[in-house]
Amino acid sequence: MSQRLRRVNEAVKEVVAERLRDLKDPRVGFVTVTDVRTTSDLGSAEVFYTVLPDTEESRTATAAGLASAAALVRRELGAQLRMKRVPDLRFTPDPLPERGRRIEALLREDDATDAGR
After folding, report:
1. Which residues span the domain enclosing 105?
2. What CATH number does the domain containing 8 carry?
3. pLDDT single digits (tens) 48-93
4. Most exposed among 2, 37, 77, 95, judged by the fewest C-beta atoms under 10 Å?
């Protein structure tokens, strides 16, 4: 990944995170932007996020709220970054927390198996 693309990703992450804090949509709870991956042509950006509380209901509601706010956030992104091409935003739940919980559960299961021997 080029240094320019890294800077664009970081700038997009900052603006999106700031804008999401100001959203008035009740479906969007406490959202943390964890990563942004922009395509090299700046056509689209995948915005990874986590949400608290981490329940199925809040994840579903937040996903719907973020999808409906994508155009508004993109418009703000264009105003603040003054880029020739403003990427389309696609919000994706960050898979890392779920993977971490799964690994932790497997380790606990392994420890319990070892203790039983």
Report:
1. 3-116
2. 3.30.300.20
3. 999 988 888 988 999 999 999 999 999 999 999 888 889 999 999 9
4. 2
